[in-house]
Specification:
This protein has 230 residues and is mainly α. The protein has eight helices and no strands. Helices cover 64% and strands 0% of the residues.
């Protein structure tokens, strides 16, 4: 029994490696990684720009919000910062569980494109943080040095993007639960205006739809165009 178990384990590792190697050799994987890194860098640059803008004595407008104006303020920043990371872990578990490594370049590209678009829009629409926002927990500090730039919501958009990209009903349900918690925590923390949250969903959906139509070469699954699983 122990020999069989060891043999099965060795076969699983061997099969996993054999499926990973073509992905690691693909240029699309590294283009996807480049998209993610570029998106992160642009968001940092945009937030730094907004910080320097305010350092000159200028102000960013704070908006009234029908939903936020009728909600209490609770410091739940640690909740939405932690929960929005769970879908990232779930996507990695999903890929190894389903051995769906061929979709990894497409997943990276879609997340990267979302953050590239967000990096542009938070400068094009430079709203100030919602009134009474207490700031993120020091453990994460909003994943960046400056907590500026709200439209669209990166927390919401990224989680919803991963929800769209998960190709399994169980993982989609788990990520949807995470999305619900993130949205509720953001609203109660006044971490984003409601328009930021809804826009994060729409931006993610639009980018995913564009990717399905024009960037499907990043999905390395060897299936026919008519049966592609995206």
């Amino acid at each position: 029994m122990a020999v069989q178990s060891k043999s099965a384990g060795s076969k699983y590792i061997s099969d996993t490696i054999s499926q990973l190697i073509p992905v690691l050799k693909s240029k699309y994987l590294y283009l996807g990684i480049l998209a993610v890194l570029s998106g992160m860098a642009l968001n940092i640059a945009s937030q730094t720009y907004l910080h320097n803008y305010m350092s000159e004595g200028k102000t960013l407008p704070m908006l009234s919000d029908l939903i936020l104006d009728n909600l209490p303020v609770m410091d739940l920043s640690l909740v939405y910062d932690i929960v929005c990371m769970i879908p990232i872990l779930l996507i990695f578990i999903y890929m190894f569980h389903k051995r769906d490594f061929n979709r990894f370049p497409f997943i990276l590209l879609m997340v990267g494109l979302f953050y590239l678009v967000r990096g542009v829009f938070i400068v094009l629409t430079p709203f100030g943080n919602p009134p009474m926002f207490m700031g993120s927990d020091p453990l994460f500090n909003g994943f960046s040095k400056y907590e500026l730039g709200v439209y669209p919501s990166g927390h919401t958009g990224n989680v919803f993007m991963l929800y769209l990209l998960a190709n399994d009903s169980l993982y989609k349900k788990l990520i949807l639960i995470c999305l619900s918690i993130v949205v509720i925590a953001l609203l109660l923390s006044h971490g984003h205006y409601s328009i930021d949250i809804f826009s994060g969903v729409f931006f993610a959906y639009a980018i995913k739809s564009y990717g399905m139509k024009h960037l499907r070469m990043f999905d390395l699954n060897p299936v026919n165009e008519g049966t592609r699983r995206l």
